[in-house]
Amino acid sequence: MGQRGRQKGSVGVKSKEAILTIAAEEFAEHGFHETKISTIVKKAGLTQPSFYLYFSSKEAIFQELIHTFHHKLIHLTKNSRIEPNLDKNILASKIARGLISIFKFFDDHRHLTKIGFFIADEAEEIKRGMVAHITENLLAEQQDKYFRQDLNMQIVAECIIGAIERLTITKLFTNESTPQQLANEIVDIYLYGLQNTES
Amino acid sequence: MGQRGRQKGSVGVKSKEAILTIAAEEFAEHGFHETKISTIVKKAGLTQPSFYLYFSSKEAIFQELIHTFHHKLIHLTKNSRIEPNLDKNILASKIARGLISIFKFFDDHRHLTKIGFFIADEAEEIKRGMVAHITENLLAEQQDKYFRQDLNMQIVAECIIGAIERLTITKLFTNESTPQQLANEIVDIYLYGLQNTES
Amino acid sequence: MGQRGRQKGSVGVKSKEAILTIAAEEFAEHGFHETKISTIVKKAGLTQPSFYLYFSSKEAIFQELIHTFHHKLIHLTKNSRIEPNLDKNILASKIARGLISIFKFFDDHRHLTKIGFFIADEAEEIKRGMVAHITENLLAEQQDKYFRQDLNMQIVAECIIGAIERLTITKLFTNESTPQQLANEIVDIYLYGLQNTES
Amino acid sequence: MGQRGRQKGSVGVKSKEAILTIAAEEFAEHGFHETKISTIVKKAGLTQPSFYLYFSSKEAIFQELIHTFHHKLIHLTKNSRIEPNLDKNILASKIARGLISIFKFFDDHRHLTKIGFFIADEAEEIKRGMVAHITENLLAEQQDKYFRQDLNMQIVAECIIGAIERLTITKLFTNESTPQQLANEIVDIYLYGLQNTES
DNA sequence: CATGAATGAGGATTCATTCAT
DNA sequence: AATGAATGAATCCTCATTCAT
């Protein structure tokens, strides 16, 4: 069928993706309200009505971007459950690996991350999800005696998310640190603490 | 009679303060753009032109709130430099005391905190200031051998600010934890780390 | 009566005059709409309600200034009727004298002139009055054979007013010419024309 | 069918021109401040946002009208340089022809003229340009001995512009005189003066 | 004579969104 | 698949003017 390959939808798909990409940029840089549909379509070489061919509203495309971010993030964390029975040295690197994958993901999707992790109202909920996930992991490891028994792991998880948040903005997105470096620093700090045990 | 005589201008002052209070509430809850001047003045029992009697624009009052927050915050952290020559136990409680005062301050000024620490574009800068301050303190203590020599204290500071940020939103503002509890948890986590040293 | 001279009204009179003077300046410089009552009273060291102690509205003070201008102008032109039976040389200087008095008057009341002769809607009417007056004079002199019989004196009068208007703005108010100079130039041009009668 | 095919954009052009025409009317009649965008668009059968489809602000459309006037005026005066070597009778009719074209232009563009020659702040500058142009012409003719040597031609030019100004308002726009009549009267007055040379 | 405080009324401008083609 | 044209619905802001003291 259709040997002349009037590749149905390909143009539209391209337009839609152009809009999505540019919108992500704009939202990430200027926030929701300061981003104008007019600007997006202009940058995409389209007109305003075309926008509504692909998205039902400004709110809708914003949600779509958030959803994409959230979806990818969930997918990412799905496989990161730490297997039991590993010795302490390996634990550290396991944790580091998890953090690396998060930072890498953020690094690879800067605009989406800005939107879904920092700008959106839903960011709070997304973080809550991550905190829950991390808490679970930590609890398991706590149970396995890798971690101190007297710690409130939910609070720990919040601290880690907070750290990730900050470092993403100030170190990762400024290109001052790599995912690896950041992950290692976090592991080092949280695992062993600040206290000087020498002397 | 009235021992304070002809309270010149007191009415206007009251109106201005009413506007400020309500504006803080609104901005904190709805953000800059979703906050309407009309709503603010209505809640203050005034009309729109009155607003402009006290503030030159919506932007201006927002800035004033940010400034107030920043100003108070700076004032707070001014006295918090840790004195040298204290043993380790005291150090912990010293640090805790600093954190308590921050959480207390945030707790006492929830709206301002939401605005100046979470909503404003300037929040980033304000946090940067706090990070710098904390970094300084940490470095001094590191020099005094209280802390491990191999840690990048700026990164540590970022982690702490991130933790404060998160815990403020999820534990403090939800009334799930007190400033004391949060401060203690942070000290415990960051000073000693997660690692189980028993066994 | 009243040896203590609580000069009744003197303060008010002073305030009113201050307002009038400043208002004239402002209207002259910025026109009606761009002149704000708030600016006037500020410059007069008063508050807005005080303004309404002396003038019923912005429109009212503007009218008062126009009226003052018009009144003075009418007073000026009342005595300027040219007496009959003068020879041609004297005629020229008579006319010049009339023009000098007008230019002097404009020069002495620059703000009022700007308002009443250039800014006000009523300026048109005021000019019409002057044209009528000049026309009358010219007609008398035409009847006395001093002027050409074939000229439409109303048109001539319009031309003279037009000349006065322009020269007031471009030469008088810029201090490039004195009333005398301008009057002489006008007399010279209009009496003898441009045409070179030599050769 | 339809020899001009798919008239792309013709509707928008029509709307823009409608707005321009009506705006010229309104500005001419009521001045800048008393002219409301709401009135303009209402008369054009449009809504307020449509106005901003074609003009960026009220100030902008006003400037556009002024510019149009100025542009046309400059175009008009470009060809009006008087060629040398003409005898006196022809000179008069040459000058008359120039004046006719000006009055005709003003007559054909009453609204624009009101705006650009009487209402706009830029009117002064526009007149200055005309004065300069006229002065140049007069000087050339003076050099060629057509005009008296003792006259300050800039002042003469100012007088002529003043005359044009006045006569435009009082005779042309009231339909009391035609461009031809006005031009002839001016030539007559300025060339030969008022003085009765008979007797 | 004067003012601190307040407001009614309106006006320009913006932006997401839609209609007809 | 796309667009020229248009708009509904707000929002910020301004200014002359007034009231109570």
Please give the structural blueprint.
The structure is a homotetramer of 199-residue chains.
Chain A: H1 10-34, H2 37-43, H3 48-54, H4 58-78, H5 88-108, H6 110-119, H7 123-143, H8 153-172, H9 179-192
Helix pairs in contact in A: 1-2, 1-6, 4-6, 5-9, 6-7, 7-8, 8-9
Chain B binds a DNA duplex (21 and 21 nucleotides) through residues 8-9, 11-12, 15, 36-38, 46-53, 57-58.
List keywords for this structure.
homotetramer; 199 residues; Arc Repressor Mutant, subunit A; Tetracycline Repressor, domain 2; 9 helices; 0% strand; disordered N terminus; DNA-binding; HTH-type transcriptional regulator YdgC (chains A, B, C, D); DNA-binding (chains A, B, C, D)
Describe this structure in words.
The structure is a homotetramer of 199-residue chains. The first copy, chain A, is mainly α and 199 residues long. Chain A folds into two domains: 1-55, Homeodomain-like (Arc Repressor Mutant, subunit A, Orthogonal Bundle), CATH 1.10.10.60; 63-199, Orthogonal Bundle (Tetracycline Repressor, domain 2), CATH 1.10.357. Helices cover 73% and strands 0% of the residues of chain A. Chain A is built from nine helices and no strands. The first copy, chain A, has helices spanning 10-34, 37-43, 48-54, 58-78, 88-108, 110-119, 123-143, 153-172, 179-192. In chain A, helix 1 runs antiparallel to helix 2 and helix 6 crosses helix 7 (123-143). The longest helix of chain A has 25 residues, at 10-34. Chain A is elongated, with a radius of gyration of 21 Å. Mean pLDDT of chain A is 90; it is low at 1-8. Chains in contact: A-B, C-D. Chains A and B meet through helix 7, helix 8 and helix 9 of A and helix 7, helix 8 and helix 9 of B.
